[in-house]
Amino acid sequence: MKKSKPYVQIVLFLLAFGVVTGGWFLTEALLLQRQEEFLHRTGQIARQTGMPSALQPAETPFFSWNQPGERGGDLAESTLFEGQPLSEEIMAEVLSVWENGGNELPHEPQKGQMNMEQAIETGKEWIAVMAECGIVPEGLAEGDFDKVAARLCTLDTQVDFDEGLLSCWLVQYTENDVVVSLTVHASSGNIWKASLSMKESDRVPNEYSHEEMLKMAFPFIDRGNAETADLINHVFCEIMPGGLVYAAVKEYQIAVKNQDPVIVIDFWLGTV
After folding, report:
1. pLDDT one-digit tens code per residue, 112-167
2. Is residue 136 classed as helix, strand or coil in its secondary structure?
3. In Å, how far from its chain's centre is CA 145?
4. Looking at CB atoms within 10 Å, which of 53, 218, 264, 265 has the fewest?
5. By the 8 A CB rule, do 223 and 242 touch?
6. DSSP per-residue codes, 192-214
7. What count of other Cβ atoms lies within 10 Å of the Cβ of residue 116?
8. Are the C-beta atoms of residues 218 and 229 closer than 8 Å to each other?
């Protein structure tokens, strides 16, 4: 029994060493497994919550505005928009629904509709033309404004034509005392309504007639055999050849106590 004692001690030592070593390897394996599970769960959470990666910017929030060039995706998308040409008959149907009014429903751009950047840039180009002609202050041609607000909406109503044609961008530009409000038809990309307001001291005198001003405001409408008329309340009207849609302009002045009078010029399309 005495001779076997060293042998027993060696066996016990090897067993203890094996337990310690095996436990260390087992612990390391468990730690690695838990680490992998944690990373896997973290990756799943990131994908499920929609966290943007470094290569894919988050979606632009509704009503926000980035200057051109800040997001290559939006800028590239804006170059792909081609406005849908509309006949006078379709324009009349859409305008008739607008004139009847209803509940406005804001929404995101749909297929075939311009996005917010495109709508704002369209408005800036329109304002630049007006500025070059002296309809609004010349400085607005640069396209720098103190504030720009835009929203896309439609009307909560049922129609017997493509509902997407009801959508319009309502865009407002503010620069000092000048305010330009535009209604941009989302599918055609054309401006169907505009309201300009400025102090009389900011208005640059011009020699354009109302007929010429309408051509600047609505260059896209068909003027084949259009009829013109001076209506009451200083409204000048031009009726399109089909006799269904008219373009109108009205210029008037608002007196403000102890301040410069405000000049307002309204352009709009309507149904006959």
Report:
1. 999 999 999 999 999 999 999 989 999 999 999 999 999 999 999 999 999 999 99
2. coil
3. 16
4. 53
5. no
6. EEEEEEEEGGGPPP----HHHHH
7. 23
8. no
